[in-house]
Specification:
Low-confidence stretches: none
Mean pLDDT: 93
Number of strands: 14
Number of domains: 2
Largest sheet: 7 strands, mixed
Strand content: 5-15%
Distance between the termini: 26 Å
CATH topology of the largest domain: Rossmann fold
Shape: globular
Number of helices: 10
CATH superfamily of the largest domain: Translation initiation factor eif-2b, domain 2
CATH architecture of the largest domain: 3-Layer(aba) Sandwich
Order of helices and strands: EEEHHHHHEHEHEHEEEHEEHEEE
Length: about 350
């Protein structure tokens, strides 16, 4: 299958190259990011999105944005590095992978006692390792998750947790890709995912490109499709998973989980272990990002609500662990009560 590469080094290594996902599905445009401002804007405006992808972008962006400071003294260089890391780290607060990746590159830099050039070399190697590990992480999630997909399975997913959201083949879509690769027939319902339509714009584009049957539905159609027996299982991604198994994911995921529970449909969360945050006890402790009201009142520049109307626009919601059938990670499958680190190869 031809997988899009959402984030990678530019050919000459001086920039982070991303697919500008704001322009899909009509325009396929790749953009190079070099400065802190460019990296932060791309992350904040969802030009690059998906917890693993923004983590990779943040790690690589920290490297390329700090490289111009290579001629500074080591103290001034470290000061600039810290400033850049803080700016990138805070670009989006909910997805734990961004802070995790930036902190990992910073930790590597702190281990080096040499000059700025030596620090930058070590940082670049670390960022590259994060990208390569992400690709392998996606593959492992795909292999484990494919065990839950029988031939003829009909899957509902929300938002986009495919190749566009990672450095590899995705998280929630990885089991679908692996099952299809194994010769199984899989059909997907893609929630459009309001207000920014990541499901209809991105997931449907990605699956169609791979030749996998996909049907776009409005978010408020999921209940009816489930009631009619059209869904066998749901698979979604995650931006942060609390220590107790509560899941923060794109707004609307909680509604899908409630509907799936009511209709007796299993709901699986597919995410890398780096998304599990042991320092966050429950979902109530997760900071939820609130975004520009215009995303709701004038999506893509088209006014659909009266000027001055109040807007509530959280980017994520919390799905309680009690509504999650299992969490599929690169290190195994976890079921309630969640004791992360003790995974099993669970059967469906």
């Amino acid at each position: 299958m031809d997988m899009p590469q959402a984030v990678r080094w530019s050919p000459d290594g001086t920039a982070v190259r991303i697919i500008d996902q704001r322009r899909l599905p009509t325009d396929f445009i790749e953009t190079d990011l070099q400065t802190v401002a460019e990296v932060c804007e791309a992350i904040r405006t969802l030009a690059v999105r998906g917890a693993p992808a923004i983590g990779i972008c943040g790690a690589m962006g920290l490297v390329v944005s700090t490289e111009p400071a290579h001629a500074l003294s080591i103290d001034d260089f470290r000061r600039r590095l810290h400033e850049n890391a803080q700016a990138i780290r805070s670009a989006r607060p909910t997805a734990v992978n961004l802070a995790w990746a930036v902190d990992r590159v910073m930790a590597r830099a702190s281990e080096i006692a040499g000059d700025p050039t030596q620090l930058l070399r070590a940082m670049r190697n670390e960022a590259t390792a994060i990208l390569e590990e992400d690709r392998e992480m996606c593959r492992r999630i795909g292999v484990l998750g494919a065990e839950f997909l029988r031939d003829g399975a009909r899957v509902l997913t929300h938002c986009n947790a495919g190749a566009l959201a990672t450095g590899g083949m995705g998280t929630a879509l990885a089991p679908i890709y692996e099952a299809v690769r194994a010769g199984r027939r899989i059909a997907v319902f893609a929630d459009e995912t309001r207000p920014l339509l990541q499901g209809s714009r991105l997931t449907a584009w990605e699956l169609s490109r791979a030749g996998i049957p996909v049907t776009v539905i409005a978010d408020n159609m999921a209940a009816s499709v489930m009631q009619g027996g059209g869904v066998d299982l749901c698979i979604v991604g995650a931006d942060r998973i609390a220590a107790n198994g509560d899941v923060a994911n794109k707004i609307g995921t909680y509604g899908v989980a409630v509907l799936a529970h009511h209709h007796g449909i299993p709901l699986y969360v597919a995410a890398p272990t780096s998304t599990i945050d042991p320092a966050t006890p429950t979902g109530a402790d997760i900071t939820i990002e609130h975004r520009d009201p215009a995303e709701v009142t004038a999506p893509f520049g088209v006014a659909i609500a009266p000027e001055g109307a109040a807007v509530h626009n959280p980017a994520f919601d919390i799905t309680p662990a009690t509504l999650v059938t299992a969490i599929i990670t690169d290190q195994g499958v976890f079921r309630a009560p969640y004791a992360f680190g003790v995974a099993t190869r669970s059967s469906p």
